[in-house]
Amino acid sequence: EVPSRDWVTATRGIPDTSYTLRGLRSDRDYRLRVCPETEYGAGEYSLPVHAHRRTVPLLPTREPTLSNISPSSATLSWPPASLLSGTPSRPILYRVEGREPPSSTWYDVASRVPSTSYNLQFLYPDQSYMFRVFADYDGVESEPTLAVYLPCRAGPPKMPREAPYVSSVQPESLILSWRSVELPTRITDYSPVTYKIEVQEHPSSEWRPLERKIPQTHFHITKLRPDQDYSFRVRAENEYGVSDPTDAVLVRKRS
C-alpha cells in the first residue's frame, strides 16, 4: 500500500497469468508485482505496476513558462490541472521542484501552491536552474511537467576580439581606445564593468598588467620608452570574472 515501501504477499499458487484481486480499499493506492514459483523456489520479480484507486489530477506535461526574469528572481507559470468528470470538487494544489545543473538531484522549491504561477526568489545570478511542477489532488500527485531551463542571468563580460586602436602617438605616450563590452546572451544583471590593459614588451612573450579599473573605453598611456616595441590588449572585468582578451595591437619604436 502506497506510501509504504514494504511488500506483502497478496496471494500465491496462481495457475494462470491473470488474477482478480478483491478486498482492496477504495481510499488506498497500491503497487503490484508478480514472481514465478516452482518447487525449487521463487524467480525474479516483475517491475511493479501502480494501481491508482484515488483520483489523479491531469496536468499538461509541456514545459512551464518563465517571465519577469531578473538576476535573482523569475515568475514560473503553468497550465491548470483538470479532474475526471464526476470527481468531487476540492482544491488542486501544486508543488514546484528545482535542480541546479550539473547536479541531477531535484529538491522542493514550494509546495501547496494554490495558483498556477509562483514567484521564484533568492536565485543566484551565476547559477543555471531547471524547474518542473506537480499537481496534487487530495494527496495524490500527477506526473511532473517537462522541466524548463533557466540559464545564468549574470556572468563575466565578453570583449569583442577586435584589436584596440592607437592614436595620438608620441615617443613616450599614446592613446589606446577599444570597443565597449558585449554582455553574454540573456544576461540581465548589468554589473558595472571596468577594463584592464595588458602590455607585452618585445622580444619578451610575457603579458603583464599595465592598468586596471578603467571605467571608459580609452586610456592615455605614458612613460613609454621610445626605443621599445610594445603590444597592447584589453580585457573587461566585473564581479563575476574577467573576459578573454582582445587581439593585440603592435606599436613600433617611436625614435
From TrEMBL:
Organism's domain of life?
Eukaryota
In this chain the Fibronectin type-III domain maps to 1-58, 60-157, 160-255
- What Pfam families does the database record attribute to this sequence? fn3
InterPro entries found in the cross-reference section? FN3_dom, FN3_sf, Ig-like_fold, Striated_Muscle_Regulatory
Q: Where is the signal peptide?
A: none
Question: Which key words are in the record?
Answer: Repeat
SMART domains listed in its UniProt record: FN3
Q: Does the keyword Repeat apply?
A: yes
| Stated name of the protein | Fibronectin type-III domain-containing protein
